[in-house]
Design brief:
Blueprint: H1 3-26, E1 32-36, H2 43-59, E2 63-67, H3 74-81, E3 89-94, H4 100-103, E4 116-125, E5 127-131, H5 140-149, E6 155-158, H6 164-176, E7 181-184, H7 188-197, E8 202-206, H8 207-215, E9 220-224, E10 252-259, H9 264-278, H10 281-289, E11 293-294, H11 299-320
Parallel strand pairs: 1-2, 1-3, 6-7, 6-8
Antiparallel strand pairs: 3-10, 4-10, 4-11, 5-8, 5-9
Helix pairs in contact: 1-9, 2-9, 6-11
């Protein structure tokens, strides 16, 4: 090998070896953008706006929340995937990130795993199964028994095709062998109105979105996800208590992802900083008021969660024959 070639190769190796440390040491060198691929007021948007000023104080740079909704979150997600892998553009992801690969299998413009570096899970929101009060069921066993005795007679609502609410019910159908009819709506409000009115009989929803209606007696909650009961609806038994632990898979989770090829030490730096901010008492209390529980972890744990969820939802989509609208 020529001396010049050797020197160039050696220099390149040194740069490559040094670049991870350089990436973390120099971060952030300019404002950081938290991309929310949904509209303002969504769960990921709520979390982003609560932690942005605290991250800004920690990093000494502005942290900007940028909403890029559309195409079931795909527009904002693609934007984040194509951003430079330097930590200055991060994606506020939710569990639909692991559903869309199955729904948009042939035309998703990014890879949900390969195009992102997991940073940390941030929080969870419990889901609950709500029924119209006229439905003669009080718990999961009586619901399953009633559904099996009346196959195809119960209609369930969702805020749209391929939403977590839709996927949750399809998971219930395939796991416990019941026949229910899907009625998709364009958003949660129309679905909730018809559930209360009796046009549909049941629906999955996040606890915060249905708690008020339940307290008013307009819907009945028969189960909630989680390893313990929700503090917002403490009288509602968990799926696990009732022997339906498989439904815990439908918990809504929130996480932060970086573009792929983000330096490993920068991933660790981001994991540490997000974890510390999320686990402050004021952040946990503020999110608890929104029905969100802080749940952080390692990048590897988030990667494993994403991988398992993608495989799970692919099976559900294939079994139910779900296709994008």
């Amino acid at each position: 090998m020529k001396r010049s070639t050797f020197l160039l190769s050696a220099a390149a190796a040194l740069v490559a070896a040094a670049s991870p440390a350089f990436a973390a040491d120099k971060f952030p060198s300019r404002p950081v953008t938290l991309v929310v691929p949904f509209t303002p007021g969504s769960g990921s948007d709520t979390i982003a706006r609560i932690i942005a000023p605290r991250l800004s104080a920690r990093w000494g740079q502005p942290v900007v929340v940028e909403n890029k909704p559309g195409a079931s979150g795909n527009i904002g997600t693609l934007f984040a995937a194509r951003a430079p892998a330097d930590g200055h553009t991060l994606l506020m992801a939710i569990n639909t990130h692991t559903i869309t690969p199955a729904i948009y299998r042939n035309n998703l413009p990014y890879d949900a795993e390969r195009d992102f570096a997991p940073i940390t899970k941030l929080a969870e929101a419990n889901f609950t199964l709500a029924v119209n009060p006229a439905l003669p069921v009080q718990d999961m066993k009586s619901l399953i028994a009633y559904a099996k005795a009346h196959p195809g007679r119960l209609d369930y609502a969702s805020p749209g095709n391929g939403t977590p609410h839709h996927m949750a019910m399809e998971l219930l159908k395939s796991t416990y062998g019941v026949s229910l009819v899907h009625v998709p709506y364009k958003g949660i409000s129309g679905a909730m109105t018809d559930l209360m009115g009796g046009q549909v009989q049941l629906m999955f929803a996040s606890v915060p979105s249905v708690r008020t209606q339940a307290q008013a007696g307009k819907v009945r909650l028969i189960a909630v996800t989680g390893d313990k009961r929700s503090s917002q609806i403490p009288d509602v038994h968990t799926f696990r208590e009732q022997g339906f632990a498989a439904m815990d898979a439908i918990d809504a989770w929130y996480a932060v992802l970086a573009p792929a090829r983000t330096a490993p030490d920068l991933v660790q730096r981001l994991n540490h900083d997000f974890g510390e901010v999320m686990n402050t008492e004021d952040v946990k209390a503020e999110l608890a008021r929104q029905g969100l529980q802080v749940r952080t972890g390692t990048p590897a744990q988030l990667a494993d969660l994403m991988h398992r969820d993608i495989a799970r939802w692919q099976k559900v989509v294939d079994s139910a024959g779900i296709k994008a609208d």
